[in-house]
Amino acid sequence: MHQYTKKELVDLITGKLRRNFGRDVDEATNLHMFKACAMVLRDIMSERQMVTEDKIQRTHARQVHYLSLEFLMGRSLMKNAYNLGVVEPLKEAIESLGFSAADLFESEPDAGLGNGGLGRLAACYLDSITTLDIPATGYSICYELGIFKQKIVDGQQVELADNWLGLGDAWLIPKMDEIETVRFGGKVEDVWENGQHSIRHTGYDTVLAVPKDMEIAGYKTEHVNILRLWDAKSPVPVDMSLFSQGAYLKAVEQKAMAESISKILYPEDNHREGKALRLKQQYFFVSATVQSIVRKHRAEYGTLRNFHKKHVIQINDTHPTLVIPELMRILLDEEGYGWDEAWHIVTHTVAYTNHTVMAEALECWPQDLVSSLLPRIWQIIIEIAKRYQEELTTYFRGDMGRVEPMAIIWGGNVRMANLCICACYAVNGVSALHSDILKKDVFHDAYVCTPDKFKNVTNGIDHRRWLAECNPELDLLIKECCGGPKYLLRPEALKDLEKYKDDASVLERLSKIKRDNKLAFASYVAKESGIILNTDAMFDVQVKRLHEYKRQLLNVMHIIYLYQNLKRNPNFLTTPKVYLFGAKAAPGYHVAKEIIHLINSLAATINADPVCKDKLQVVFLENYRVSLAEKLMPASELSEQISTAGKEASGTGNMKFMMNGAVTIGTLDGANVEMHEVLGDENIFLFGLKAHEVTEIKNKGYKPYEYYMRNGDIKAVIDQLSKGFDDGVSYDNLTRMLLFGNGSAPDQYMLLADFESYRAAQLAASQTYLDRKRWNQMSLLNIARSGIFAADRSICDYARDIWDVPVRKI
Description:
Oligomer: single chain
């Protein structure tokens, strides 16, 4: 592997500035410099990617295709430089050319092509897949606008467009010779000629899918994979006949309609137009992807009969489910295969990762929308659904009470998760508890029918990015204690750190690293917002998507409780606390937005009250994103993972905190269960009902109002919510939701039932924090035992248990 020097990189960068931008270094702006650096790294990756492709073709290796509507990539300049082993010479080259390397890295916008955990997981997996030399391609949409930029105005979330492509397109390579055509609408007719059946599709609208490839470098390997992002374009940019008549808007209408598909991540789908656009996005992305894979396979092998032996298509959640009928369509209509042969190929190619037990997140589409937008796909889904329902009816001896929940089409809706369960050869959950719930509850009858297809692969994170890159002081300590950099490719080597748990000098060094990281983060916050954080306080952090089941509201209720007691007794808090929140709410999710408003109302009141000075502080971090998380994780001390047990499939933020030495306060939910298994009771602060207890209490009839009447602390907190804070805004709507429900069950996420237990766990954490040696030991053991949560381990599990592909020997 060639090691690039500072001089070589200087020559390459200056060459790019001249050839691509017509500038000498002294004329170049930061934008020119950033793009030149990106292009230099891109060239290095392109050469390696061509070698990788040649090797795959030469060996006829089985390939993995990872389909996800979200890839939350974050920034790429530092990441690619790190994986290519050129961080230091690149920094030196940039500085020697008169630019600030730190400013240049910081200027890159996050590629926010995802909402949260799902998209970030996909990004981590691409890194590990490539590092382990697995031939693979990721696929998604090249959204012009990623997840919105969040602005807080008068305490409330305002969404601004996030146009990341200005600088982000430096990483994208358009492949104009690999454009695919996707069809929507029209009419489908059966045609019989000479006893042969075929399909005639007419009157459809056409959208072009233009591939824009982002290269993915692995760590310490020549192997390079691709993330293929599909951009939607109209085949006819402008209708010239309409334009010449003066109908200018009408003339560009088709172009605008086509390009709306790749305009924005997650359009609101609480109305028909939004649903139609969302369904169009899903089909556009999978149709282009399958056509691309098939085209290359046919060119190499001349037949699709061996397709399932050479490819595995992993679908990340239900969003890419239409890959199933689309592959059937190609095999039936374009290749002329019979149903049984086509079905055999599909059902030995596609595997499904389920990411949720939340009923509302298990996608359903109105059948009239599917039939009008995708008439041929609808016909194929009908046939799959009919055959599956017949199988189920036979298996369950006509018991429709068991058939109905598993049916693919029912009550006018197409159920995407059931289509996955029917057609995929493997179905996996993303933590041990989650996979268990899928088997015992969500898909129980399907599990009874086909137990062998159900698997578990616990999520993991890219530990090179989320520890080594973002926490360099800790990385250095680990290398000194654990035999050099071997943990970067063998994360289980982190366990060697455990032998230092009683070493006073190592514990003191660990404490200093955390202190330095807190000071660095506080400096960043002061610069960005003017807020001065109390770095002598414990940093208690909850950052994730804002959703009721994640229970940011429980955290807020406890802070209100602390504030009320602090007002009565200024000595109430022995451990000063800084509560840090970061979260984006979906634009149409009213309750989530109200909780953001509440956090900011509470923060304004507490931070202005002299009684709280140096004791209690609440800060909402605006526009939470990957690059902000990279600064925050190393500085965090208490990690809030407090979802209602049985609701969070896994979580990955919990793993990032753990790896950076934060101690978790959490329920036994998602991957917290496995974290508890490796940490033991003594290195995590557990509280709350377990998943089966939540179900039992709900079945008996949960009455949150009784907790309100019996517990004075809860009553005082709820009453304060109703009354509001210094800004005069009442949160009576949240109060009613907790006590009486607003069209749904009251307090359906059991905040009041878990409040006392949470309060006790918070108190235990605060008291333990005062014993610095004990806290540092807990921190060290969290880091030492976190290796199992590296994405490299997850990908090895997929490779062994689901994909049947070899991985690099390390």
